[in-house]
Amino acid sequence: MSRITLSRYLIEQTRSHNTPADLRFLIEVVARACKAISHAVSKGALDDVLGSMGTENVQGEVQKKLDVMSNEILLEANEWGGHLAGMASEEMDQAYQIPGRYPKGAYLLVFDPLDGSSNIDVNVSVGTIFSVLRCPDRNGATGDLGEEAFLQPGTKQVAAGYAIYGPQTMLLLTLGNGVKGFTLDRELGSFVLTHDDIKVPETTQEFAVNMSNQRHWEAPVQRYVNELLAGESGPLEKNYNMRWIASMVADVHRILTRGGVFMYPRDGRDPAMPGKLRLMYEANPMSFIIEQAGGAATNGTQRILDIQPTSLHQRVPVFLGSKEEVERVTAYHQE
Ligand code: AHM
Ligand code: MG
Prior knowledge:
single chain, alpha+beta, Fructose-1,6-Bisphosphatase, Chain A, domain 1, D-Maltodextrin-Binding Protein, domain 2, eight-stranded mixed sheet, binds 2,5-anhydro-1,6-di-O-phosphono-D-mannitol, binds magnesium ion
């Protein structure tokens, strides 16, 4: 049986869904960068890539060596091909300008180069999350690309995906017509289609949340999680299991595989931080993927993909996964 590689899938998409050739090239380049990141992550202590840099990113978080390496791998892979007008990364203060010596293209690439990086040193799955937007018309302007070009709601994404560096390296991708899963065949050096048409079950008995923050949550989330914990004898009349990997890619990947609800609610610790996760680098791409797989994603009151971003590094509360549970916790916010 012939195997469908990512390249072949993308070419078929060009034929069947008019996926533009430059978008196809962009995805291929991102996938190639993810292979390089997968390789670097897998080396661990052998190549002295574990541990911290001793620096902080724009959000005041300690940068791991692999955060910085992954960011550089993605920038270098994508800057020269002529398919991008600019990039933005969780690890960089401002938008990245395509160097003047290279041609520019129609798209914007936004990424979290290594999500869940607090897990690197303990050998737990991490991943790369990415989102592709079209660059708005600049009316002939040739100067630096400003942050405003990126501030588009998630509904405008033309593609999104993530690579998960776990027992297997996989790439999950949506071009807006379903979700496909590819597994890296290291001998071939190719991502091979292994999970066709991924769907999130509508109902679930599994939830994911960092319970240590419970005392800081708002009332609707307190109520919902208490009901989950009450199990069969509570109002939801079933027992729930809990999982928290603290790597969003790994938690979302589990939900895409067997269902579940993922929450990173707003909490009362810092009013300037409405949630931990970033809209552009984490919430939007994951919400696009989850919706394309038949699930739902809200910030408690609104569909995440409808949020108009106001800044590049904006944070949002996130509830995503199996529809029934996301709708339930969202309804509690509205009561
Ligand atoms: P990061 O982008 O700095 O790695 O942070 C995001 C991660 C998510 O992957 C994960 O869901 C969450 O932070 C875990 O947070 P916590 O440490 O509160 O459990
Ligand atoms: Mg992250």
